[in-house]
Design goal:
- The complex is a heterodimer of chains A (306) and B (353).
- The longest helix of chain A is centred in the first third of the chain and has 29 residues.
- Chain A is mainly α and 306 residues long.
- In chain A, 69% of the residues lie in helices and 1% in strands.
- Chain A is built from 13 helices and 2 strands.
- In chain B, helix 2 packs across helix 13 and helix 7 packs antiparallel against helix 12.
- Chains A and B meet through helix 4, helix 10, helix 12 and helix 13 of A and helix 5, helix 6, helix 11 and helix 14 of B.
């Protein structure tokens, strides 16, 4: 840190943004798909923790971290489908079920994950993209995980698919007007269940990033509300997958401010800096919401808009 | 709709039978999970009963846990009457506890009764402000209150940790950072004839007052109209903003009081033990009670009992302490799913005249 001095802070924040943003990115892309179809899943926090646990456990048992990532996605898919199916019942509130799933998912993960707190599982490899620089800080900041790049690709693909494919059009129609979708002969509940399942899969993958790359181990305090912040992030990103990516970077950067300042010796207010992502999320929601109109780009059937 | 005494009876029977049925189903599902893990479900339930309700000691443990649950559940149930889903009780509890500890320390030499009152007021005020913030953001800025209250909860815990480990830390607390103890004279005692602290009494009174307020006053009537249809309430000339904020203030005050009780009756100072998840378990209690203030009391005793038996399961069957969280999670999901059954079962339908 000596030769860079204060320049180390922005570089560390940038590196932190790249490192910390991946779970935000995956969870928010998943939630984006779910919300586009007209449902909101607050339970992604529980799915994230469950994904982190099952990814770590599978990686430990099989020795292959990528199998862990897949297993985490599968666990997320199951929980997402559970949310979707329960919400298909008439008069069941999707926000309440989300809160239930949040408690259920974390409880189940703590229960099943107890034996995996101690052992060390193989984690995901990093790709050093900073070899051109002599500075170790820059090199550290540019250690990128493949999942981050997959996430970017996914964001691009999704925003293209929502605009240009038949599948994207159907999801948007189901989310904007279930009457229109029914008139066209599409099964609205089935589409929403599928979208919630896919959203759960992505949230599970995001969870596996936490346990298999950064911080890179499984413990009960692993997630600190990333799944929940991702829901707010989707609202901030106005249901646009590319904006989800930018917002995830911003949130990741906010989360990296505390550790970065700590590395140059500013340790007072450690807890306050750690609260930065929540404050940023709340501030952004206050700035973008309005009591008089629904947000531009919001799916018409979303329950938080009514 | 149901009318007459027999119709009302059928409605109450339905409101009791469906949650009980859902809880029974949850016990079956949880029993299957236990059986799949090679544990005998009957033995597990026997131990839960022993840990929760079998002896005077377990009852004391259960009721001590139920007291804060009653108050944090009110923090969900009161705003819910106005149609708001506030789930940030944990933050209100933590800040309420901190405010009570600070006031208790500052007023150290004053008459004990005055100190206790001031602590209760400080705790309630802190909690009320925190939840009212979420309500005001919803009312005047259109920010979804579920998300904002949870974010506020995380912020409250960060502020709490910062203050307890920094400016407000008692230098004498070495291993576990705490605020300066409030002193034995200011501690809240136990209920007469019971080994349970006064928090349970506060909770019962708060529930009763809330019930009367919601069901038998003009304010409560207006509150339920707002919860049913805010637009219609506004057209009828009701001050919707003030009504919603009032419900949030009362709910937050309940959660803040829970924090004060935990400090003044259990821990003696504010430290990390306050962050024990009572706020989140209170959400579960409120939903099982279907946001009914009177039903909250028995449900809180049940949920408090289940969590009190966690240690017993851990010691005797070598199950992780999160086992009771799984049971609670399954129960929560099935209770929510059972919402769909209301009005669809033939036995509970009033016959047509």
């Amino acid at each position: 840190m000596t030769e860079l001095g204060w320049w180390g802070v922005p570089i560390a924040v940038l590196g932190g943004a790249v490192r910390v943003s991946t779970p935000f990115l995956f969870v928010s892309l998943g939630e984006c798909i779910t919300e586009k179809s007209g449902r909101i899943n607050l339970g992604l926090e529980g799915i994230l923790v469950m994904g982190a646990m099952s990814g770590y456990a599978l990686s430990y048992l099989t020795g292959n971290p990528w199998l862990g990532v897949l297993g985490a996605g599968a666990a997320g898919l199951v929980l997402g489908l559970l949310h979707g199916l329960v919400c298909n019942l008439p008069r069941v509130n999707d926000i309440a079920v989300g809160i239930g799933l949040m408690l259920f998912g974390t409880g189940l993960a703590f229960f099943l994950g107890k034996p995996y707190v101690q052992p060390k599982a193989p984690t995901l490899p990093a790709m050093p993209l900073g070899g051109w620089s002599a500075s170790p800080q820059v090199q550290a900041a540019l250690e990128v995980n493949p999942l981050f790049l997959i996430g970017i690709g996914l964001a691009v693909a999704l925003s293209w698919a929502f605009r240009n494919t038949r599948w994207g059009l159907i999801v948007r129609m189901v989310g904007d007007s279930s009457d229109a979708a029914r008139a066209m002969g599409y099964a609205v509940p089935r589409m929403r269940t599928l979208c919630t399942g896919v959203g759960g899969f992505l949230a599970g993958v995001g969870g596996s990033f936490l346990s298999l790359y950064y911080p890179g181990s499984w413990s009960e305090g692993l997630s600190s509300g990333q799944g929940l912040m991702a829901v707010a992030l989707v609202i901030f990103a106005r249901w646009n997958p590319m904006h989800c990516f930018y917002a995830a970077l911003l949130f990741g950067g906010a989360g990296a401010v505390g550790p970065a300042l700590q590395s140059v010796g500013i340790t007072s207010g450690y807890y306050l800096f750690n609260a930065a992502p929540y404050v940023v999320t709340l501030g952004i929601m206050i700035a973008t919401c309005s009591p008089r109109r629904t947000l531009a780009g919001a799916p018409g059937e979303l329950s938080i808009n009514r | 709709m149901a009318s007459g005494p027999s119709g009302r009876l059928r409605q109450s029977a339905e409101a009791l039978a469906i949650p009980v049925g859902a809880l029974g189903a949850a016990m079956v599902v949880f029993g299957l999970v236990m059986a799949a893990l090679g544990r005998s479900p009957l033995e597990v339930y026997e131990l839960i009963y022993q840990g929760a309700f079998a002896s005077a000691f377990s009852w004391q443990n259960t009721l001590t846990r139920a007291a804060p649950l009653i108050l944090t559940a009110l923090c969900v149930a009161l705003p819910a009457q106005a149609g708001l889903m506030v789930i940030g009780g944990e933050g209100a509890l933590v800040l309420g506890g901190l405010a009570a500890a600070v006031v208790g320390h500052l007023l150290g030499g004053a008459p004990p009764l005055g100190v206790k009152l001031a602590m209760a007021l400080a705790g309630m005020l802190a909690g009320a402000v925190w939840i009212a913030l979420a309500g005001a953001l919803r009312q005047y800025r259109g920010v979804n209150e579920t998300i904002s209250s949870l974010l506020l909860g995380y912020i409250a815990i960060a502020v709490f940790n910062h203050l307890v480990e920094g400016p407000l830390r008692d230098p004498a607390s070495l291993n576990k950072p705490s605020t300066t103890p409030i002193g034995d004279a200011s501690m809240v005692g136990t209920l007469p004839g019971l080994d349970v602290h006064w928090g349970l009494g506060f909770g019962l009174v708060f529930c009763l007052v809330t019930y009367v307020l919601v069901k038998h006053t003009t304010y409560g009537f207006a509150l339920r109209i707002v919860g049913g249809n805010a637009r219609a309430a506004r057209l009828a000339g009701l001050p919707v903003g003030a009504i919603v904020l009032g419900a949030c203030v009362l709910g937050g005050a309940a959660a803040g009081l829970a924090g004060m009780v935990e400090v003044a009756a259990v821990h003696g100072s504010a430290n990390a033990s306050l962050i024990a998840g009572y706020g989140y378990a209170g959400i579960l209690v409120a939903f099982i009670a279907r946001q009914n203030p009177l039903a909250i009391v028995p449900v809180a005793v049940l949920v408090g009992g289940i969590s009190a038996s966690g240690g017993m399961l851990q010691r005797r069957l070598d199950l992780p302490d999160a086992t009771v969280l799984v049971l609670q999670g399954i129960a929560f999901m099935l209770i929510l799913a059972s919402e769909t059954v209301y009005g669809r079962l033939k036995i509970f339908r009033p016959e047509r005249a």
